[in-house]
Amino acid sequence: MQGLSEVVAAVHADVAGHIGAGRVADYIPALSQVDPRRFGIAVITCDGERAFAGDAAVPFSIQSISKVFTLTLALERVGARLWQHVGREPSGSPFNSIVQLEQERGVPRNPFINAGALVVTDALLAGRRPPETIAEILGFLRARADDAEVSIDREVARSEAQTGFRNASLANFIRAFGNLQNPVAEVLEVYFNQCSLQLSCLQLARAGLFLAADGVDPLSGETICRPARARRVKALMMTCGHYDASGEFAFKVGLPGKSGVGGGILAIAPRRAAIAVWSPGLNAAGTSLVGALALESLVERTGWSVF
Amino acid sequence: MQGLSEVVAAVHADVAGHIGAGRVADYIPALSQVDPRRFGIAVITCDGERAFAGDAAVPFSIQSISKVFTLTLALERVGARLWQHVGREPSGSPFNSIVQLEQERGVPRNPFINAGALVVTDALLAGRRPPETIAEILGFLRARADDAEVSIDREVARSEAQTGFRNASLANFIRAFGNLQNPVAEVLEVYFNQCSLQLSCLQLARAGLFLAADGVDPLSGETICRPARARRVKALMMTCGHYDASGEFAFKVGLPGKSGVGGGILAIAPRRAAIAVWSPGLNAAGTSLVGALALESLVERTGWSVF
Amino acid sequence: MQGLSEVVAAVHADVAGHIGAGRVADYIPALSQVDPRRFGIAVITCDGERAFAGDAAVPFSIQSISKVFTLTLALERVGARLWQHVGREPSGSPFNSIVQLEQERGVPRNPFINAGALVVTDALLAGRRPPETIAEILGFLRARADDAEVSIDREVARSEAQTGFRNASLANFIRAFGNLQNPVAEVLEVYFNQCSLQLSCLQLARAGLFLAADGVDPLSGETICRPARARRVKALMMTCGHYDASGEFAFKVGLPGKSGVGGGILAIAPRRAAIAVWSPGLNAAGTSLVGALALESLVERTGWSVF
Amino acid sequence: MQGLSEVVAAVHADVAGHIGAGRVADYIPALSQVDPRRFGIAVITCDGERAFAGDAAVPFSIQSISKVFTLTLALERVGARLWQHVGREPSGSPFNSIVQLEQERGVPRNPFINAGALVVTDALLAGRRPPETIAEILGFLRARADDAEVSIDREVARSEAQTGFRNASLANFIRAFGNLQNPVAEVLEVYFNQCSLQLSCLQLARAGLFLAADGVDPLSGETICRPARARRVKALMMTCGHYDASGEFAFKVGLPGKSGVGGGILAIAPRRAAIAVWSPGLNAAGTSLVGALALESLVERTGWSVF
Questions:
Q1: Residue C238 and residue D238: Cβ atoms within 8 Å?
Q2: Binding residues for substrate, per the UniProt record (chains A, B, C, D) (predicted)?
Q3: How do residues B12-43 score in pLDDT, each as one tens digit?
Q4: Are residues A155 and A273 in the same domain?
């Protein structure tokens, strides 16, 4: 294997011809106005080695990737009781489907579909006000990214709230089954803010590094969660991290990952590295098209597939 | 870590108090009459080390575990064209559900649900008669298990055929959408025979070893498939290997695996070992209850989780 | 056939032994506290003959029966354009199901499931404020019942709003597909108020009489709608008036009808009479159990089945 | 109202411009080769008056219209016990959908979808061989049509069998839930033969006349079934007679009816007449497009809507 920087440069070259492909999310102006030709990649190893290319330092809206971090926080707060409110199975459905929710009486299939993430956010809120909870999430991301510049794009959060009828529908539906403890409006407020976190690839890879290292931040030495919990979050990323294209991602990339409609993907090579890619054009399932290609290339070049 | 034999003995001790738990499959006499207190485990490493315990040498009906081997064979025969006829996504549904098949116009979600396995069997048949195809599958299993004693229980195959209305329904349904090339009766004949293969844990672990070693049988040196193909079969085992409990298995065990209603599970620790467990009592999702506990214990003791 | 009063008395006697059966709706206090032993029936013929028994003069919450009246009003206002926003098919699903709505991209199956009624209410609102629209609906019911005492139970409306998460979910879901023109909160406000209309059996039968007489109130001579429209509203009552028990009602009663969870049913015998029954205990499908029995008996005794 | 012959002639004229519209069923050659410009209509009143136009004397494949007659026969044979095996609700789904069948564990929604008709045929078979049962059905149709020339097109039956994978799937599926008593192959044999009955509009209207007259053939005086049973068969025709377009037919035509993919429709005007129309071009829901228009026109001109 070449040095990490050469690998990352080669991955960048591999995907260069595809940059701009895919369809940029257009449901809110803030996302639709992003330049489709952006592409960034950052890899940080458990030893602290860094390699990056393209727009790796440009912050983007991480959207659903935030679900990995709120799940970790909620599990630390409420423990395994969380699994009474949300399942651990792939849904076989798009990210915002409501069908299974009706059949399964308000218990979402997993924490990485929108319905499940709302339940996780509800668990995080427990007994507090939205601003505190939003501050806690932001604080966690800043600490994990080791960068106090990490922020929430309030304009994006406002837009999400104005157009978030589907999420409002999901939250009311779950509430109708008694599976939300906090007011629907408060759960949505926190949720729209967590989706509006903006991080660069470098910040995001750094923030996810504890997952690569069994729950301990390998650079700061801080314990974020138990090793078994870190493994389990990664198992969920593998089976459920990309909605109804999770199987395809596992098949082609072979790493636990989580994508967001902003075009970012966080992938974890256990005991090796955290990888963040960003390219705004999405495939039909809502995952970054060029981002997934870049990860395929990276895994091919490094042999980091868990399989 | 202890020696492998000590680990396997400790796993056996861990689950001893649970042996007999779960519900034995009862849809055909040959399965329902199996002693629910059977338990076997066998581990074979890529170096050829073996460790086993309990009824590891007793043959049992591998049922759906056969899908891993027919998938490998079919991919070698027809290549990536197979994916035009069957998907690669978790179904989120029980093993014999027909609902998605209607929505998705006869293209099964993945090769490890019954509908998908029928399509794989159809691809294997292509242009030949059932006896030849059954002989090919049996020959492949004998070669992989390095044991000419591996056999098909024809009595089980007959029973499957007599009670297999659900599979007959699935096959006719797929045929109605034009996604089977061979006569329904021939596809079913081969399918019921492959499900009736009987192997012991020792034979099954040996047969699956090529998947642990990137497609090359590490003991005989034979190439069975390309490394990328072996990885991809394992990715499918991870996301789809246990029907609508695949997420739970990934969460708790963290290894690619495939279960059968006969109570067997084949799990692969990439680049380390193949593991076979057998215990007839099933959980609600049709996976061996004690078998899954044994794998959880094994992974806890070895750290072999891919995550 | 006996005189109408004798028939109604005989019907009352037929069901007397069943009064109190069924399960009273309990999702809001105002409904759950109704005496389950209430039973009322009123028949008003196109000639103006009246017969009634039991609690026929006691107002009750008409709930979903209001959908018949708002549909008539909305059709008069927007005409056949309404059918671009809501279908005319039985749903085969419970009253508040969201599954079909997802498959059919936000266009509810028919105007008598909750989702469809929300779309009808949205059409009625068009360009006005909720209080005006609520006043219009109330005025229409007062005119049709020929009784200025007809009122809305504001306490019930408030309770509906506080517990109406499922309806809020439906409305947001429809809005997400762009099939509501007015703000979700305003549509819900009108909807919860229309459901809280309270009429007695006598008032309700009187209010529905124009449907029995081809769209013309036979007692006042007023034209409410064209004959074809009256027929079509009745066709929808026949095929969709009782959620996923509409077939059963058609099979046993054979009259177009509409039920509400308050325990009321409005049935129409074309060119003969309007009939209102009330008994709070519901069957599994949410239709008044004793009310349906009474209508079965009435039809048996009068031969008024349309079949 | 004009005389009946004038009305029928006027209806013919009303639809003349549309003849040839719609899509002819093409799943078997025998149906696809029918001239799309065929159009026939026949009306027979309870008084024995006849009026007809176009190809009213040309036999066509009645297909699913046969379900009305086998239901009547099966109810006479097994009585209300039949309803333990098949429901009475509109399905909200296409004629050959399998989805609900899985949710409802093998009990079809109603006797007029294919799955339900297979259960009805199974009840008719009970303890006999297919040829006897086919002979009984044919005999019943000949008696009802008062014409020994009524026949089964064996070529059509053979084609149905060769391409009937979807029906074979449904039958096996129902059998898997234990809801068929006879061998799948025998149920299918009878079913494919009943679908292949060929009658002209004149024969078909005559055959359905007992339904218009409360179960008694008004011309021969024979009692076919009790009045309540005749009403209930008509109620099912109203709510379930046209698959997922039953609501639309009720809305526009307002008569109980049953359509077949051969382009025929049998409609009943209670206590007035039986009407048969035939035009091979189908709408999206599989109902004769011009046939439905003709019935709309007829009802408009006669005021025969039950509403």
A1: yes
A2: 64, 114, 160, 167, 191, 243, 261
A3: 999 999 999 999 999 888 899 999 999 999 99
A4: no
The Cα–Cα gap between B71 and A258 comes to: 28
**CB neighbour class for C148 (10 Å; exposed up to 12, middle 13-18, buried from 19):** exposed
Q: If pLDDT is split at 50, 70 and 90, which confidence band does D96 have?
A: low
Strand partners, A276: A42, A266
Please report the ipTM that was assigned to this predicted complex. 0.93
Whether residue D202 sits in one domain with residue D191: no
Does one domain contain both B190 and B203?
Answer: no
With contacts defined as CB-CB under 8 Å, which chain D residues touch B170? 169
- Residue D171: give the domain boundaries: 64-195
* A91 part of contact set with chain B, CB < 8 Å: yes
Looking at the fold, whether B87 and B163 belong to one and the same domain comes out as: yes
Neighbours, chain C (3 or more CB pairs < 8 A): A, D
Same domain, B153 and B265: no
pLDDT band at C99; cut points 50, 70, 90: confident
CB A98 within 8 A of CB A167: no
Clarify whether residues B116 and B152 are in a common domain: yes
Q: Which of C195, C230, C257 is the last residue of a domain?
A: C195
- d(CA A148, nearest CA chain C) in Å: 36
Q: Is B243 a catalytic residue?
A: yes
pLDDT at C91: 82
Measure A29 CA to nearest chain B CA, in Å: 32
Q: Which of B150, B191, B196, B297 is catalytic?
A: B191
- Which residue of chain A comes nearest to C96, CA vs CA? A102
Number of domains in chain B: 2
User: How far away is chain A from the Cα of C215, in angstroms, using its nearest Cα?
Assistant: 37
Residue C226 has which token pair? 């064209």
Q: Is A144 helix (H, G, I), strand (E, B) or coil?
A: helix
Helices within C79-223 (DSSP H only): 99-103, 114-125, 130-145, 154-163, 165-176, 184-195, 201-212
Q: B13: how many CB neighbours lie within 10 A of its CB?
A: 11
Please give the average per-residue pLDDT across A49-68, as a whole number.
98
Question: D7, D34, D61, D67: which one is catalytic?
Answer: D67
Q: Which chains touch B (3 or more CB pairs under 8 A)?
A: A, D
Q: Residue B227's domain is classified under what CATH number? A: 3.40.710.10
The reply to whether D27 sits in an annotated binding site is no
Sign of CA dihedral D116, D118, D120, D126: negative
Among A195, A230, A254, residue at a domain's last position: A195
Of the partner residues C87, C231, C247, the one whose CB lies closest to the CB of residue D239: C247
Tell which of D169, D181, D184 to mutate to test the B interface (max B CBs under 10 Å).
D169
* pLDDT digits 0-9 by tens, C221-278: 999 999 999 999 999 999 999 988 899 999 999 999 999 999 999 999 999 999 999 9
B162 in contact with chain D, both atoms CB, cutoff 8 A: no
For residue D34, give the amino acid letter.
V
On average, the pLDDT of chain A sits at: 95
Q: Could you tell me what percent of chain D has a pLDDT over 70?
A: 98
Q: What is the pLDDT of residues A80-110, one digit of tens each?
A: 999 999 999 988 776 667 777 877 889 999 9
In-domain check, residue A307: no
Residue A30's pLDDT is: 84
Which residues of B make up each annotated binding site for substrate? 64, 114, 160, 167, 191, 243, 261
Q: What is the pLDDT of residue A95?
A: 60
User: Cα separation of A202 and A261, whole Å?
Assistant: 18
Look at residue D283 and tell me if it is in a domain. yes
Q: Would residue B244 count as lying in a domain?
A: yes
A248 touches chain B (CB under 8 A): yes
Which pLDDT value is given to residue C244? 84
Q: How many Å apart are CA D231 and CA D256, to the nearest integer?
A: 10
Based on the fold, state whether residues C261 and C242 are members of the same structural domain.
yes
Catalytic residue among D7, D8, D43, D191: D191
Whether A88 and B238 lie within 8 Å, measured CB to CB: no
Residue B69 sits in the same domain as residue B191: yes
**Structure tokens, B165:** 């209305």
Catalytic residues of A: 64, 67, 191, 243, 261
> Is the separation of the CB atoms in D209 and D270 below 8 Å?
no
- Please identify which of the residues D15, D43, D64, D150 carries the catalytic annotation: D64
